[in-house]
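Quick board copy: two proteins, each given as sequence then tokens.
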Amino acid sequence: MDEVTVGLMHPGEMGAALGSALRNRGTVVLWASSGRSSETTRRAELAGLHDAGSVQELLRQSDAIVSVCPPHAAIEVARSINGFDGMFVDVNAVSPATARTIAAIVENGGGRCVDGGVVGPPPRSPGTTRLYLSGPLARRAAALFAGSTVDTRVISEELGAASALKMAYAAWTKGTAALLLAIRALARTEGVEAALLDEWRTSLPDLPDDSLRAARAACIKGWRWVGEMEEVAATFKSVSLPDSFHQGAREIFSRVPRREAAERDQATLEKVLVALAKPGANVDAGPS
């Protein structure tokens, strides 16, 4: 396909890495610094993104837009591009129903929408990160990343399919992390944590270390996962399956303290288990 200019909304850790992957294949990638935090500015600069200043200027200069933001902000971002008549690639962790709502907003504003879902870490090396895409323009969106570190996989021409896959995947990876932390908190509260750990070492030897991994990830990213678990729960409910599993996961992540520099160690796990024993949410708003 002809070279295009891509606008990125908004460069968090994953968004900046996707932008860097595009830039490394020769694509001009724009972002808008107006109203963004110093941390976001630092990420965008390190990724080599060009600052368009305002969202309006970014929309004017871009042929395609890629949206990567916390799930709770995905619809708001779609509304902010009203009047953009190019391709809008929404790769946020949202339910199929939310994906279709976003598509309707974009198309009512004059654009065309592609549904996407990212599985894996920020794509800093090949073979780590899959970008699943669906919708009539999915192959066109995949071409944006051709030759980059992002493995794109078109799975359907139906909008919402990529989001459905993302929800099913996150239901396991993040849902089970929340369950594991809740089990540790339960065992500690009941005074059987040491006995449980002894049994795990005998029959399920990976779980003690998995607990440390889950605690670190929840401290760093749990504030984002609150909204993601809401979207997963809504996806289950939409097909008449119980949504309470992931409503519970949402509550677990809302109680986890936010620690940007959390380590995968016992000290981090201790902070999480103490917080889980207390009702109420500790999560705050994410970075802008």
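And the next:
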Amino acid sequence: MTVPTEQMQSFFAHETACIDAPAVIGEGTKIWHFSHVMAGAIVGAHCSLGQNVFVAARAEIGDHVKIQNNVSVYEGVVLEEYVFCGPSVVFTNVVTPRSAVARNRSEDYSRTLVRRGATLGANATIVCGITIGEYAFVGAGAVVTRDVPAYALAYGNPARVFGYACRCGEPFTLVLDRATCRACGAAYERSGGELRRADG
């Protein structure tokens, strides 16, 4: 590892992890076996990066993010706070990749934004240039080719919205644009086409 001594004390990295300076890694974060964080990457506090996770230069990962094994977070991908990435989630960052055409400028990459609290199930593929809304829940194996609204439950190939999920993860059904989570009691309402918490 080649990170400043004072920063190494604030997070844990397994001895097989490769961390290139300068990378920003927050306090309490854990980086496990054979993972690689490139110079210029930003990883927040209290994150968990499982085995064989790759974080590219200029990728951004917020606080309390959990990334399971075998996930590559490429340049142009932004994960906000409390995002969960299941095993082998796939991100892309170029719309028109060609082996013979160099893509090495920031403007060559399409930004993918995964908003606060969203869950991406195992083996989901997220096509670049889209936004996954707050607390959206993307099912295992889904191929996401368009934006997913906040709290939406989306799965399939291509992924479609089949319902909604609470912040606690429990699915719920809207009745007259309102719903109450049977697991935690949180209330939701849809107004102006957007779903939001009705009780704060």
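Board note added afterward: The first strand starts at residue 12 and ends at 13.
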